[in-house]
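Problem statement: downstream parser choked on a complex file, so we are re-checking the raw output for the nicotinamide-adenine-dinucleotide run. The parser issue turned out to be on our end (a line-ending mismatch), but while we're here, posting the original submission so the record is complete.
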Amino acid sequence: MQQGFTQTIDGRGEDSPTSFDVINPATGEAFARCPDATSEQLDRAVAAARRAFLAWRGTSQEQRRAALQAFGAAVRERTDEIAALLTREQGKPLQRAKEEIQRALANLEGIVANRLETEVLRDDARGRVEIQHHPLGVIGAITPWNVPILLAMPKIAQALYTGNTIVLKPSPYTPLTTLLLGEIARDAFPAGVVNILAGGNDFGRWMTEHAGIDKISFTGSVATGKRVMASAAATLKRVTLELGGNDAAIVLDDVDVKAIAPKLFWAAFGNSGQICQAIKRLYVHENVYDALCDALVAIAGSVRIGEGFEEGVLLGPVQNRMQYERVLELLADTKRQPGVRILCGGDALPRPGYFIAPTIVADIAEGTRLVDEEPFGPVLPVLRFRDVDDALRRANDSRFGLAGSVWSADEARAKAVAEQLEVGTAWINHHLGVEADVPFGGFKESGIGREYGIDGLRHYSEVRAVSRPLFPPRPAAPGAKP
Ligand code: NAD
């Protein structure tokens, strides 16, 4: 049993009076103990972050960029160690764990290349008005378990780069790699600028209620996002909510099936389907429907599934028992639907751990749980359409609106359809991924606010108008004495 992981509070490593098990999803067995932070530790972390804010906000953007880049370099040096721990706690193949860290570091570099500058709104006969961006104070960041490093890193980078300090809590399913980030941050930033504590859902709620936290940057499910927003209302905290998705990909009738099938497959099944912006509803024109289903099933059959340290493994387990049972329940419900065909998979794998075979479901329609809900597992429903407008209407008929894509040999045709998707990101002949200079977030119940890009930085700042108006002299009132 691995022990000795510490939280970071006011620049120092700290244990907690109690701890909880961290499970390896590839075995279903506990492999480590993680400190379980108390509310008193949260109070001290927030107080430290408030103290540190007073000096940190006075540093220049260049100083903060340099500190974040030094932090990134120190994380890079420990990539192998963090990746191995990520595979153990999250389940993804080791190579994918390394890629997650590399992508997180590339995003950090991209974020500090963005510039949120003071704007001069006017400087004329009416006076001079500057729009300045002021840091908010202490950011409370809460992350889920699917890509813990990829999600923690931009929150740290955006919060710090804009002059805020941070208290971050990872998911209790995958807390350990984020604690390592805290350990590295102790040497990279002044005490109190980065605080990382581990705890369960109650700890997250305490953060949303805490009067010393000015904003919550939350990534997780829609249901929890609503709780976060309701709780944040009591202190009028700012919130950014990056929530679930049920992304549609629309495949038009002129595609090269062989060329796009692998791209579609990995956009749906990468990280075992546990990506907010994975393809979760695949709408395919009837002319290419059977050919594309066959191609996807062939890929599913060729992919090696297993423990992330095994050579050649491309897909790992579902990350935790709760999610595993939820996906199996969705599969049981799917099997009860008349006319639905399970083309491959459909069951758990007969081995320890939370493994589910990649599952492709044909002849399924809206009104079923698998299509209407977010499965967040290795299951893809493939829906048939004849008319593009009908596909668009069905794709948009959802409370989710995170991302979507349109696939066609004719890019202009795909773009015209993509522009009608009610989503925060609409891709053309591509699906998945964030870029540090491109704002990312959801329409509808997929979220509020944006991360990444200049928009992302704005969401970590308050706007202050500094104004020197030159009002024209008032006309003297009739009868007024000079
Ligand atoms: P979750 O909502 O259950 O948990 C997310 C985090 O919130 C965890 O750290 C958890 O401990 C904490 N939490 C739980 N209850 C809380 C409360 N009342 N107050 C404050 N914090 C609380 O989500 P999950 O199951 O960990 O993650 C999967 C979900 O995350 C999926 O819906 C997925 O689509 C979504 N997600 C979204 C994005 C995005 O950028 N839009 C990215 C990744 C994952």
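For whoever reads this later: The CA atoms of residues 315 and 371 lie 22 Å apart.
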